[in-house]
Structure formats: structure tokens, C-alpha cells
Amino acid sequence: MKNPNLLKNLHGQRTRPIPIWIMRQAGRYLPEYQSVRGKTDFLSLCKTPELAAEVTIQPVDILGVDAAILFSDILIPLEPMGISLAFKEGEGPVLSPPVRASNDIKALRVHDSKETCQFVSETIKILRDELSEKAPLIGFSGAPFTLATYMIEGGSSRNFLFTKKMLFESPTLFNSLMKKISDVVIDYLNMQIEAGVEAVQLFDTWAGILSLKDYRDHVFPHVERIVEALSAHQRPIIYFAFNGGHLFDVIKHLKVNCMGVDWRTPLSIANELLGGNKVLQGNLDPLSLFMPEEKLKDRVKDIIEEGSHAQAHIFNLGHGVLPQTPPDKVKMLVDIVHELTG
Q1: Which end of the chain is less packed: N or C, by CB atoms within 10 Å?
Q2: Residue of 29, 33, 150, 215 with catalytic role
Q3: Do the bridges between strand 92-96 and strand 84-88 make them parallel or antiparallel, or are there none, so unpaired?
Q4: 105-135: per-residue pLDDT in tens?
Q5: Beta carbons of 206 and 145 less than 8 angstroms apart
Q6: Residue 128 among the catalytic residues
Q7: How many helical (H) and strand (E) elements, i.e. helices and strands, does the chain have?
Q8: What is the CA angle 317-320-325, rounded to 5?
Q9: H helix runs in 135-211, sequence order
Q10: Catalytic residue (choose from 28, 128, 216, 264)
Q11: Domains of the chain in sequence order
């Protein structure tokens, strides 16, 4: 029988043990992933349903996590908008041409994900069968602001010069880009839900670079529109604004089931700031996995205690697991959470 704990907690029903899944749980730290990845490049792996499904399932079988998350990348829906996407070793994603002017935004296509990202729905359909007796499947997308930063900067950035320059100098132009991306995200997540995912997460990796005012004025309305558009499906929605504790006073108004919290804010404090009526997900520092077992167990106990103040708690890292992390330490974390709350 499929493990029901994640979905129960997402609906506010506490379970024992509490569920745990891990951001980037399918990835470079696993030898089994490396074996599959050695057959192809990263983007091709994302676009080959059989291989993407295989690496999605690996952490469920190897680690015993309580949910699978679709193996893909947040930038996948941008390519059909008219953006060239490549992943270069040591550089990360490279998007070209950068989107910085009115004509650039007008040229972007709002596409039908069922046609342009069919490989994603095919992966989900494979997983729906393969995971039927194992674990629920989480789908995901990047949130519009995070996707916009990659499009405007042309890749990763340290200071987000061009993104903030557009936002401050040409807020109407910035808003038009955010609206177009939001339309794509809504369609992309609708496609995933219709294909069979049982929950979705919006990753707002770079929301934390903004002030509360700028987030409230230029980003929150678009996230809110996405959440409202998805609500008809009645699938649980998780929103994760990395480094976003200062944004909680606005984020708390989102009508989502669950809020992801990074390690900077204790869950007990996050619960208060978010209004005390949300399921919380998190929030172990990924580098804590290098602690000795007893110290790691103590840290996990603290987080479980802090999470007990929330409506319900899903254990996770406060960001993705790092490639240098020993797989046995990740398995140890899963076992500790299950042991302490079983």
C-alpha cells in the first residue's frame, strides 16, 4: 500500500512517523544516479522519460523517503518560450538571449505544455504506475520571480543587477514579463497535475534577495494568481521562498497547504510569523549532514520539537542536499526521523 503520510500531513493531519523527503534527493551524491547520468547529459536526462523516472524512484528505494519528487529542472518550461538553454560544467545554466527589453518580452511564447513538455507528462505517467504501491509523487515548477532572474541575467547571478535594474527602472515592463511567465507556470503545473502528480511545490529560490516591499508589490500578486489558478484541482501546494523569512508577513496570506522554511528561521518562530495555520516543511541545514550521528540526532530532535507547534510538519532540509554529501548520512537522517517519530 502506498505510504499515505505525506499527503495526510499536507492536509493538516499529523502522522507518526512524520514524513520526510529531501530537496534534490535524486542527484549527484548518489552513485546510482551517477551511473544513469553517465549515459547522457543532464538536459537529455530530464527529457528522457524512462531515465528521469528511474532516477526519481531511486531515493524512495535507497533512502526510504516518504515521497518522490519528479526529476527535472525548474528551467525546463522556459525553453519552449523561445530561450536557448544549456548546462555547462562549472557554470550552471546558460540562457540566451537574455530577456531585458520590451521586444524580448513580446517575442516570448506562452506555450501549451502538453505539447512542448510532453516528456514531463510521460515521465509522470511512468511514475504513477511505478510508485503506485510505494510513495506519492510531488511535481514542481520554479516560481515566476526565480525564473525571471535566470531569463534576465542569462544564468546564475551574485548581485542580480539586470533583474533589479528592470524592476526599479521599468516596473511595468518587469510586470509584463512576470505575467507571461506566470501564465506558463500555471499551464505547466496544470499539465503535471492532470498527468498524475499528487502535490506540487513552487520553488522561489531567489525571492529572498528582495525587500518585503518589493516582494509584496512586484512578486506576490503573481504567486497568488498561480495558487488561485491551481486551487480548482484541490491538490496540495507547497511554497518555498529560500532565505525568505523576512517575507513571511506577506507570504502568510498565500492560500497554500504548506510553507517550506529554510534553516535560518526556527520552525516555531516561522509558525508564529506565518499565522499558525500552515503545515511547515523543513528545515535542517544541508551541511548538518556532516555532523557525527549523535549531534545530528540532537539537531533533528530540536527541529521535530519546533515543528510540533505547526498544524503539521514535513521534515526536509532547508535547501537541496549537496553533491558532496555521503549517501549513508542522508539515509541516516531518514532513519533518525522515522525512529524519533515512529
Answers
A1: N
A2: 150
A3: antiparallel
A4: 999 999 999 999 999 999 999 999 999 889 9
A5: yes
A6: no
A7: 16, 9
A8: 90
A9: 144-153, 161-169, 171-195
A10: 28
A11: 5-341 (3.20.20.210)
